[in-house]
Design brief:
Shape: globular
Helix content: under 10%
Largest sheet: 10 strands, antiparallel
Radius of gyration: 18 Å
CATH class of the largest domain: Mainly Beta
Number of strands: 19
CATH architecture of the largest domain: Beta Barrel
Oligomer: single chain
CATH superfamily of the largest domain: Calycin beta-barrel core domain
Length: 259
């Protein structure tokens, strides 16, 4: 899985909770509901860059690697490596500060039309998050190179986030699994989340649009990486987050249930 998505699963669990500050009724615990969420239809492009290198593209996110198992430092500050384990299989490994944070096993079907991944995320609290993804080819003939679209994503270890009041009119968001914290106000100003997996230079702004909707923008070193729109259901039991990644037209929809 692209490192941007791995970072997003960690950050979204933090950022998504920050959208819950519109009213005291938003305070509490919320758990991702994968069955209600929509992760399909996101486009991924892999280009043969020549001299043994491949270019991995997800929206505005571009990383170029040689598939030899050697580490490549991404713009998020982690080290990403990929190596072939067979004619149509590869292993992807992410590290931060020398420690493995994620592993993925990639397989392409015999007809070259299906790209399957089995992902493990080694969380800071010692637990392991697991997911499985299937992508369908929309361009290209065989091998890794081509355009792929997510067709099925199974989150086997859904996350829970916590929200509390902060100062007079702010909110504190805690992601226990990733040991991430965010304190913010709905004033459109930049706030900096903290945690062992938060990329350096990450900032978050939040603004309220009405009692049940708000928008969050987070940036990396001043450049927008995604915009999140949140809607609270009328009964206060469900939160729907529509996530638009920079350079990607189709959004991801994450649904959280109140615990």
């Amino acid at each position: 899985m692209h490192p941007r998505i791995l970072v997003s699963f960690a950050l979204l669990s933090l950022i998504s909770a920050s959208a819950l500050g519109a009213d005291a009724s938003f305070v509490g615990k919320w758990k991702l509901n994968p069955d209600k969420s929509q992760f399909n239809g996101l486009p991924y492009k892999i280009e043969d860059a020549g001299t043994g290198q491949y270019r991995f593209i997800f929206g505005d996110d571009v990383e170029t690697l040689t598939l030899d198992g050697k580490g490549h430092v991404t713009k998020y500050g982690d080290t990403w490596s990929i190596k072939a384990t067979g004619p149509s299989s590869w292993e992807s490994v992410n590290k931060r500060d020398g420690k493995v944070t994620a592993k993925s096993k990639w397989t392409i079907s015999e007809d070259g039309q299906t790209f399957s991944t089995m992902d493990e995320n080694m969380r800071p609290d010692g637990s392991t998050g697991k997911s499985e993804s299937t992508l369908k080819r929309t361009d290209g003939a065989s091998g890794l190179a081509g355009t792929w679209e997510s067709a099925s994503v199974k989150i086997l270890s859904p996350l829970t986030i916590e929200v509390a009041k902060w100062q007079a009119n702010g909110y504190s968001v805690i992601n226990p699994v990733y040991k991430q914290h965010l304190h913010f106000k709905l004033d459109g100003k930049d706030y900096t989340p903290s945690g062992p997996r938060v990329p350096k230079g990450t900032t978050v702004t939040a603004s309220k649009s009405d009692d049940r909707n708000m928008e969050l923008t987070y940036k990396l070193k001043g450049k927008t990486t995604e915009t999140d729109r949140w809607e609270l259901s009328a009964d206060g039991k469900t939160l729907t987050q529509t996530v638009t990644y920079a350079g990607v037209s189709k959004p991801e929809v994450d649904v959280y249930d109140r615990e």
